[in-house]
From TrEMBL:
Occurrences of domain Glycosyl transferase family (ranges): 194-343
Coiled coil start-end: none
Tagged with keyword Metal-binding: no
Species this protein is from: Auraticoccus monumenti
Protein name, entry field: Glycosyltransferase involved in cell wall bisynthesis
Start and end residues of each Glycosyltransferase subfamily 4-like N-terminal domain: 17-180
InterPro entries registered for this protein in UniProt: Glyco_trans_1 (IPR001296), Glyco_trans_4-like_N (IPR028098)
Top-level taxon of the source organism: Bacteria
Keyword DNA-binding: no
SUPFAM superfamilies: UDP-Glycosyltransferase/glycogen phosphorylase
One term of GO molecular function: glycosyltransferase activity
Family: Belongs to the glycosyltransferase group 1 family. Glycosyltransferase 4 subfamily.
Entry keyword set: Glycosyltransferase, Transferase
Amino acid sequence: MTTRTVLVAHPGAELYGSDRMVLESMRALTTDTVRPVLVVPRRGPLLEEAANEGHTVLICPTPVISKSALGPHGLLDLLRTTLRSLLPGWRLLRSVDPAVVVVNTVTPPLWLLLARLRGVPTISHVHEGEASASRLVQRLLYLPLTLASSIVVNSEFSLGVLSSAAPWLARRSEVVLNAVEGPPQVVPPRERVEGAIRLLFVGRLSARKGPHVAVEAVGLLRDRGVPVTLGLLGSASEGYEWYEQQLRDAVHDRKLTEQVHFHGFQPRIWDLVRDADVVLVPSTVDEPFGNTAVEARLAARPLVVSDISGLREASAGKGSVRRVPPSDPVALADAVESLRDGWDEERGQALAGAADARDRFSSARYASRLRSAVDRLRKDRR
């Protein structure tokens, strides 16, 4: 039985949403006849996780597109990195000789070009949905996808943004909802909220993810006399440490150091989720999807999310969910109070929603859809 290699190219090496999804893709693609190989541009915690699961991981430089890279200075840096990456990337493709290349996110487009030049079919796995970006920025981000043989998109919202910005790509695109890993065991929420209601934010500490909105909501709840705590589980990206410091200063200035706790980045989140009463996803701008929202549902925790974009898809269905306007700490605080006041009913709805989320975002369903997309390209190449 012949085993073929699928090269999975990813732009980072952290363990946040798209990083965890690339691990899910590696698991999905591992079969008796397919061996996925992961390539990333630098070292990071993702490598250890992938290696622990038995996957082959390679490191190869590649340009990664970001909004900052689309400015004059950023474009020069992007060009330099591209020139430095051409030969290493070409050699890696020749050495691995993949049957298919899967490029995870729109940000490492060089792999699409190199694979096209070598005649290797490609799938672009789109996790982005920048509806608030200018049409020019959108088209620049999506233009390299013209080189892809097919496109997989993680939500209907992301597909809508893609279709609006680059309609010629829509006919080659299909939606495959993320698979989201749940806790090893669902621990029901506590039966009664005695003392402080325990809130949890999980994600990067960045303005777009909205932890500052959560901190402000905690201040409002404290001022209303509602006992409350907030855990911030995550860290700032490199270059954005100033935001985390700004967040810490706000906690200090509002005298919330007893209520707000910084847990930093942790690869295992479930102990903290288990101890939480409510999970907050207070994103301030469009989200193509919302893995954290699904994780909360899988753990049977009531959820407060911003009423935007892909977060609606991630929080749809059964469960205890409150949707609030983005960047509105008053609405966020009101939603938390509402959950606390109706805890018996919300607890039951959260438990019922866990089973619904397990079915909708199951690994088996995701694996079947992704394998089908890869198999179609492998057959077309024969």
